[in-house]
Specification:
alpha+beta; Ice-binding_C; about 20% helix; about 210 residues; Ice-binding protein C-terminal domain-containing protein; 10-stranded antiparallel β-sheet; 3 helices; signal
Amino acid sequence: MVRITPLLFAAALLAQPAQAAVTYSWHEASTSATSPPGLNIELVFSDEAVAQGSLELDFVNMCDLGEPCLDKQDSLLSLRYWYEDPWAEDGRANSIDYGHLKLPEHYFDQIRLNVTFLPGGLLNGYIYANDGNSHFEIESLGSLFTVLDAHSDEPFGCGYQYDPCSGSTGYLSNAPIVGEVPEPSSVLLAGLGLAAIGFARRRRAR
């Protein structure tokens, strides 16, 4: 049996061809008194996954606890989550750093998500991630996500100064967000309204 060492793994990773990807980042809409400030979430999906319009995943990598060590999926290329902490060496606390074809940073990587890639670069759905040290869970109403729960074994943030961590809201988008984000239903109603106005004007012009 071949043992996977960090050196062998790094060599295999370098041999992998670059994969086209789309990055979705957290854009905060509101903060919560029960959560630390400075929430960051970043997900990188393959172009193929985004083109399909939706994605559902449910897997666990347990490299320290036995097989399976590496997941076989190649749709979610990376997931990063953290709260900003000026006292931490890297400026991050309660962090999760999952990477496709990357050894788990802590005990394991567990990810469950069911998301839809919306027009305009927005994301909606449900996301849960856990690395055995920290976890978070978010779900959206339309395209607006709410933090349902977050916790960490670290002596900062979720589970310590802030318990429970929940209530913050934001959008996951692959482009900058300027102003208020309309929900898909609002966009549809606005489009129908404009079409009705145009039709009425054409009738009056006859």
